[in-house]
Amino acid sequence: MAQSTTDEAGGAEDDALLQAVADGDMRAARALSERHLARVLAHAGHLLGNAAEAEDVAQEAMLRLWRIAPDWMPGRARVSTWLYRVVANLCTDQLRRRRGIALDDVPEPADERPDVEAEMHRATRARALGHALMRLPERQRQAVVLRHLDGLGNARIAQIMEISVDAVESLLARGKRTLSSDLLDQREELGLHDG
Amino acid sequence: MMGEQSDIGKRPEMELETYFAAARDTAPVPDAALLGRVLMDAGRVRLPWHRRLVRRWREMRAAMGGAPAMAALGCALVVGLWLGVARPDGVALIAANVVGGDDAAVMVDVMAGDAFASLEGAF
Known about the structure:
The complex is a heterodimer of chains A (195) and B (123).
Chain A: H1 4-22, H2 26-48, H3 51-68, H4 79-97, H5 117-134, H6 138-149, H7 154-161, H8 165-190
Helix pairs in contact in A: 1-2, 2-3, 2-4, 3-4, 4-7, 5-8, 6-8, 7-8
Chain B: H1 2-25, H2 32-44, H3 49-64, H4 66-86, H5 89-99, H6 112-119
Helix pairs in contact in B: 3-4
């Protein structure tokens, strides 16, 4: 993936925006929110399996970003990397406070006409994956979400999780093996078939 | 045979990818309310004093009309300082005339005699 140049440019832009936020520039705060809030929210949603809790985590992560803005050192770390770490830590705290498996609240489609069957299958798969992810050990879940839902490369994941690339690959392999066996076993129950 | 086996090995991977795709498509998206709360938090964060000074300066500058207004103000400041420090020759005179002081300091001859005579119809 030849993303490094784009990433570097994006990282430098984030640094400049964060400096502006530290000077009280609200337009910079809006720009940073538009760049990162969706990703932060989606990541929290995948780690927690609960939309309401994900919103709380996303808001808290952005608040911590505003607080650290005056002390942010440009070039030392990427804003996105920092946010991923903060979200992971907040989700860990949230999961400790919570018991059991979080309920995914992808809404059930009310309409069962044949032309929305594909939509139903998609919602069912998303919900099933959410439950299966919650049954994974936390680090495996984080690695799988970063790789397959956030679309990051292994090197970036290694940076975010502060582990080696080999360790990332190991987490991914184990996580996906567990997910495969878990989800494919449920296929019949879920009414999902090949094709 | 080998092709079939590698296909079989790939099927779980491909099938898992359909689940990942579904999850990506249904990921929560921030609404206006969440964005509003995040921005409100940004506005409420207490900055260090030197950052607050920068913010106040920016707000004042914007209220006064931006960079052109500040440039004009800057020029006026420089001229005023120069007048006060350098005290060019005419300044004391003008100051006395404007502020009031010695009424006899300024005498301007406008040929009053001829003017008076003209009013009286001499010309």
